[in-house]
Design brief:
By secondary structure, the protein is an alpha/beta fold. The chain is built from 14 helices and 14 strands. Its EC number is 3.1.4.52.
């Protein structure tokens, strides 16, 4: 059989994978229709877990799918202004300990369930298209006039592939004109999936945003397929080191090596590096030794409600003045 060369688009190699779900008779089901349903549930779980994964059907999958469907219905009918909140987590400069800014994080206070984890509702919002509406609301909140932002602080906002497909991101950037933020104070975080689909179109949108003065950061760096080629295609302002590497930095030499490589790459390209999910002093000291630029995580502060942002800013600036 002849070997097919790798598929390439715009010079970038495209990797095609597959996910598989399977069920057995009689453990999974007793008839064909039920068996197919069980295999489909296993396939759905495989797609949720990771790329190119295999999953057998398990009895609990059906119950989890029904629960997910119930959550989807509630999300579709959710009143954004009443149920959703914007929380912010501080980002700290590693060497000085000074406040660099905040990452804006969406939170859902469900009337029946209480606070719902973003890990549960964000994937559903992406699949249903609700995330575009939520994303526009986050932008509107981020650009409100009453944010207490000193000129040297940055607000970082996550943007999904769904929002790129809608094509209204540049309008979101232009909304800065009447806000309390200047363009250089807004940073948009994207993942590699934004560039995997419709890369030329999305690159053009990113360049438009950059022309406005908005900063662009590549999130979850190192977990996708083509990170290095993306750095060649677009001049990112920042790289965020994925939490999976930071979590293991104190006990896994391979994770430390990857973190060191990312920081070195960012330094040589003139790109800021931010380590996510810093939770221990061991992680802090390792990242400080590697000269990581910025840190974010529960070691410094959990995400806080919008009303608490001013007090955090005040506390950091008071500490900076005291040490000066």
């Amino acid at each position: 059989m002849p070997i097919t060369p790798p598929l390439q688009v715009d010079g970038a190699e495209i990797v095609i994978g597959a996910s598989i779900g399977a069920a057995l008779v009689p453990d999974g089901a007793a008839d064909i229709d039920s068996l197919l349903k069980c295999a489909d549930l296993a396939l759905y779980r495989a797609k949720q877990s990771d790329k190119g994964t295999f999953r057998w059907f398990e009895a609990g999958m059906d119950m989890r799918q029904r629960e997910r469907r119930a959550l989807e219905i509630e999300l579709r009918g959710a009143e954004i202004e009443r149920e959703f909140e914007l929380h912010c987590q501080p980002i700290i400069r590693t060497q000085t300990g000074k406040l660099r800014g905040f990452e804006a994080l969406l939170r859902w206070q469900n009337p029946r369930r209480g606070m719902v984890s973003p890990a549960d509702f964000i994937p559903i919002a992406e699949e249903t298209g609700k995330l575009d509406e939520l994303g526009r609301w986050v932008f509107a909140m981020a650009c409100r006039e009453d944010w207490p932002w000193p000129r040297d602080l940055v607000l970082s906002v996550n943007v999904s592939p769904v929002q790129f497909r809608k094509g209204n991101l540049v309008g979101g950037g232009l909304a800065l004109a009447g806000s309390g933020l200047e363009a250089h104070q807004l940073e948009i975080e994207i993942t590699e999936s934004v560039l995997l689909a419709e890369s030329s179109t999305n690159l053009a949108i990113l360049k438009q945003l950059r022309s406005l003065g908005v900063r662009i950061a590549l999130d979850d760096f190192g977990t996708g397929y083509s990170s290095l080629s993306y750095l060649r295609q677009f001049p990112f302002n920042g790289l965020k080191i994925d939490r999976s590497f930071v979590r293991e930095i104190g006990r896994c030499p391979e994770s430390l090596a990857i973190v060191r490589a990312v920081i070195g790459l960012g330094t040589n390209l003139g790109i800021d590096t931010t380590a996510e999910a810093v939770e221990t002093v061991v992680q802090l000291e390792a990242l400080r030794a590697e000269k990581c630029g910025e840190l974010q995580g529960f070691l410094f502060s959990p995400p806080v409600a919008r009303k608490s942002v001013a007090s955090i800013i005040g506390a950091y600036f008071e500490e900076t003045s005291r040490l000066a």
